[in-house]
# Entry
Amino acid sequence: MSASAIAAAYRARMTRIVCVAVLAALALATPVSAKPATLVTFHKSGGVAGVDQRLTVRTDGRAAISNRGATTQHRQLRASTMRRLRSRLAAAHLERPLPQPPMGCADCFEYAISYHGHHVKLIDAGNLPARVVPLVNELTRIAARRVLNSVS
# Structure
């Protein structure tokens, strides 16, 4: 075997080894700061007291809450709360059309909910569609910070 044939075989073998090593490194690599996707966003506003609550819940259970523009607080939802929230989201069928909200309700609460690409606006004049009431109640409860653990 000539020297050039030996060198070519060596280069081909080394190329295969490097390719395998690179592929193995890529397969084992995990993203360092992958941000979990947003599960749901919720905005409650209005009422006699001028409520302004905002809530974002991520798929890993982290929640960001702000009230009346105050500093956003970050919390971790309990596993039981996440199960209940997912159940309420599924049961609300936000992908289906909802009745148009009434116009001109002075002291009513207004809700905006975004979930899986569906954006819903509701006005609570005492006649919310039955399928969304448990969801609105759960989101309101979460935004009121009664079911949260601090995240350090």
